[in-house]
Amino acid sequence: MADGILGRIDELIAQEKELRDRAIGAGLSSDDRERLRRAEEELDQCWDLLRQRRARVEFDDDPDEASVRPVGEVEGYRQ
């Protein structure tokens, strides 16, 4: 499962980079800005899920019991 999460993180990072690179020159369409926003939110959710799973392993809990938290909850965390 963690490999799947890491793979998705890699995909989202590539998508985010591609959109940000495109924004430098011509700017982004409203659809691309929305894609970027969704990618950033999903990326935060993936990182949060990965952290949850790793913490559960560290404390001998079942990592499969970790779950994706809502964007509003994940976005509100301080780094």
Based on the model shown, name its key terms.
single chain, 79 residues, mainly alpha, 3 helices, 73% helix, DUF2630 family protein, Uncharacterised_Rv0898c
Describe the structure.
InterPro entries: Uncharacterised_Rv0898c. The chain has 79 residues and is an all-alpha fold. The chain has a domain at 30-58. The protein has 3 helices and no strands. It has helices spanning 2-25, 30-58, 71-75.
Strand content: under 5%
Give the N-terminus to C-terminus distance in angstroms.
24 Å
Order of helix and strand elements from N to C terminus = HHH
- Major sheet details: none
Number of strands: 0
**Mean pLDDT across all amino acids:** 92
**Fraction of residues in H or I helices:** over 70%
- Report the C-alpha radius of gyration, rounded: 15 Å
Structural class: mainly alpha
- Low-pLDDT windows of residues: none
Discrete helix count: 3
Shape estimate = elongated
